[in-house]
Structures are given as C-alpha cells and as structure tokens.
Fold this sequence. Notes:
- The complex is a heterodimer of chains A (112) and B (114).
- Chain A has 112 residues and is mainly beta.
- Chain A is 0% helix and 46% strand.
- With 114 residues, chain B is mostly beta strands.
- Chain B has strands spanning 5-7, 10-13, 19-24, 31-37, 44-50, 53-56, 65-68, 75-79, 88-95, 104-105, 109-113.
- The A-B interface holds A 34, 41-46, 49, 85, 87, 93-98, 100, 102-105 and B 4, 31, 33, 40-45, 48, 56, 91, 93, 95, 98-108.
Amino acid sequence: DAKTTQPTSMDCAEGRAANLPCNHSTISGNEYVYWYRQIHSQGPQYIIHGLKNNETNEMASLIITEDRKSSTLILPHATLRDTAVYYCIAAPNTGTASKLTFGTGTRLQVTL
Amino acid sequence: EAGVVQSPRYKIIEKKQPVAFWCNPISGHNTLYWYLQNLGQGPELLIRYENEEAVDDSQLPKDRFSAERLKGVDSTLKIQPAELGDSAVYLCASSWNRGSTEAFFGQGTRLTVV
C-alpha cells in the first residue's frame, strides 16, 4: 500500500472550514484514498473515500488532485466536536477494511 | 443498532498477571479485527478473523498473546503474562466481510500494566 504523509497537527477556528492535506505521491492506480478520524477515547470512524473524482457526504468533502498524488479533506464548518486525529490511508477498494494501515495522522484542534 | 462493544473500558494489572479483553461485533459482521494502539500512534492490526477462523495473525506476539472467536461471533484477546510494554489501547473492529470497504471500531480497552 502507498505511504501517506500528513502534517502532525493543525488548528481551526470553530465555524470555519478545516482543510486537511494528505500526500500520497506513490499511490497506485487501484488504490483509493480513505479518511478515518479518531475522537479522544473512541475508536476510529470512517469519514469518506474516493478514487479520482471529488466526493462529498454529510460529514466532509474529499478533493483529489488530477495526478492523484495528493488530496484534501474538507470539513466545511468545523465544530468543537470535530477535534480529533484524522488519518489518510491509501488502499485498494476491495477488502479495504482488511488493509487499513494507520499512520500517525493529523491532530486537528478546533477552537472557539 | 448497537455498535462494536468492548469490555472492560479500562484495566489496570500488575506485570506478569494475565488479562483478557472481550469484543462483541456488530450483528451479522463476519470479519473481526483486533488492533493495538500505542500512545501517539495509529492502530496496528494484531489479528483478523473470518467467522471463527484466524486468517491473519502475523502481527500477534504468540508467545504471550492469544485470541479466539468461538462460534464466529464474540471474541476474546488474552495476554499471559502481561509486561509493562503491553500498556496500550486494544481496539476491536468488525466489517461485513473481507471485501468490505469500511470497518467499524469499538471504543477500545485501555490497559495499564504496573
């Protein structure tokens, strides 16, 4: 699986958009970009995934560059409850749940 | 619908003592995972079950760790004897099957070995 690189930490003001970058320059053609987040004292939670088109769901938007070497997770209106560690993972779409390799993620702190 | 349930939430034991963690996956999920999460790190897979069969246990330290999933539903992870370095959070997760794209995690058990 391709290695991903994320900033260690980020801050965001409540109500503003949180843009979390991820670099995956060695991603292969059959690998998707997955995002999970882990709120303090809880297990990781799936957010969104995509291959090459931008994706949006009720939690977030995922923007993947045309060359697929990087992506950005966008939380459009961050709240204090979005404070968490966000993990970017590159993995095949089939059986992804069995191939989750978590790095150290980005610790997002949402402040008043 | 209940999510993945783990117990206990917290456990403090002395080194060299045994300890066991229990996991009840989401109903109908055939695949069950145990992960280890050290402080400041992401979760790491210890073992994966397809129904009652352990299909990936390459990262499980078999000298002191053992796991079972009788009847393909609940699972237990055991450490005997525990060492100081085993202090961590032990997470259980489940998915519909090995082809699933999403895994659902429990809240974890925080183990402290003193």
